[in-house]
Write a structure and sequence with these properties.
Length: 288
């Protein structure tokens, strides 16, 4: 039996258990593998918990998204949407090609980061369960094959060690500029992968890296604060992200380069704009 037919039969078998409850459950689970969820968590870590780990996890997550897009564009494997006997839900999350599963890969990178950082039993249990559930949700919803999911998990495992290794190297050398090894190939890729997904990921990565350079040298942001202050920081920070998204769409023309600029501004806000604002507020309160 051809591999494609086997993958399609496996989707049909998974969907043979479908019912309204599972439809809702897996549509919820798949949101736990989407960018908005991870951006919120990474922002929480970076602004309120552990700045250095926030940088490391942020670089791993953002660059993994670029790797995923590049592999999809190279392989160009179509999604299992529209085949007889396959029902596809939440199609708004199914842009681009099929292999590897972006939701699964990004979920795996996020949880691998937590596992490697904290090495606690709860990270292994929670991470293993959520990686499996997000991957299963993509098959159940009929937007990915099991091969896409397995590929996403394996690529994430390989990439987390590459990304963390490069980040740790730059830390040991005390030179954030060394992370240009991420950024330079990514910028070249703008000419070869003219898609909105790639430009958004590239823009965020550029902004995040530039912010890392600026913050490390000039701001020296400290995350420690009382709980009410942490809540205020998150509210202000997220309001800034939302404002950039809305104003960027309103003011910039609808072209790929606008996606690059808008998402670079988001990366800069996370690493420079919001931390600078938080730092100034803290200093003013200390003086008063």
């Amino acid at each position: 039996m051809p591999l494609q037919d086997l993958m399609l039969d496996m989707i049909r078998w998974v969907q043979s258990f479908s019912n309204p409850f599972l439809d809702g459950f897996f549509q919820f689970i798949t949101t736990l593998g989407e960018d908005m969820f991870f951006i919120l968590v990474i922002a929480l870590v970076f602004w309120c918990m552990d700045k250095d780990f926030g940088y490391k996890m942020g670089f791993a997550y953002l660059t993994s998204g670029i790797v995923n897009t590049v592999i999809k564009e190279i392989c160009r494997i179509p999604r299992p949407i529209g085949y007889p006997g396959i029902r596809s839900l939440r199609l708004e999350t199914a842009g681009g090609y099929s292999f590897p599963s972006g939701h699964t890969q990004q979920t795996a990178v996020f949880w691998y980061s937590l596992m490697l950082e904290y090495r606690k039993r709860w990270t292994y249990i929670a991470g293993g369960i959520l990686i499996a559930l997000v991957g299963l949700s993509r098959v159940y919803l009929g937007v990915h094959t099991p091969l896409d999911v397995i590929g996403g998990i394996l690529i994430a495992l390989a990439w987390i060690f590459v990304s963390n290794g490069l980040f740790d190297w730059s830390k040991r050398e005390g030179k954030p500029v060394l992370l240009m090894v991420f950024v330079a190939p990514m910028l070249i890729g703008l000419f070869f992968f003219p898609t909105a997904t790639y430009y958004k990921a590239a823009g965020t990565t550029v902004g995040f890296w530039l912010g890392y350079l600026i913050e490390s040298k000039y701001i020296h942001y400290r995350v420690q604060a009382a709980f009410p202050r942490q809540v205020l920081k998150m509210a202000v920070g997220l309001a800034g992200l939302l404002t950039i998204q809305i104003l960027g769409k309103m003011l910039l023309p609808e072209v790929l380069f606008s996606d690059l600029i808008r998402y670079a501004m988001i990366g800069l806000w996370m690493t420079v704009g919001a931390p600078l604002l938080f730092t100034r507020i803290t200093k003013r309160e200390a003086v008063e």
